[in-house]
Amino acid sequence: MKVWEATLSAKGQVTIPKEMREALDLRAGDQLIYSVVDGEVILTPKNIDFKDLAGLLGDPPNGPATLEEIDEAVVSAAGANVLDTDADDKSDVAA
């Protein structure tokens, strides 16, 4: 597990280190999701391919899902993936 360090600016901003941006394939304009789990901040890229969302919401009883419902499902799925550490190597999980 690679660990990076950053400093919070007076405006509350943090620059993501270049090596981390490259490792996560982040580009200008990408959206990120911040989660706080047991007092630790987890940063997750929200750069999901639409093909990965196929069937995520199932077959809604009231017709197609709205963009708001899709956004909510993406955020929920991203958070669930972050919290699902069962398959992770225990050395990769923060203490």
From TrEMBL:
<dbReference type="Pfam" id="PF04014">
    <property type="entry name" value="MazE_antitoxin"/>
</dbReference>
<protein>
    <submittedName>
        <fullName>AbrB family looped-hinge helix DNA binding protein</fullName>
    </submittedName>
</protein>
<dbReference type="InterPro" id="IPR037914">
    <property type="entry name" value="SpoVT-AbrB_sf"/>
</dbReference>
<keyword id="KW-0238">DNA-binding</keyword>
<dbReference type="InterPro" id="IPR007159">
    <property type="entry name" value="SpoVT-AbrB_dom"/>
</dbReference>
<feature type="domain" description="SpoVT-AbrB">
    <location>
        <begin position="3"/>
        <end position="48"/>
    </location>
</feature>
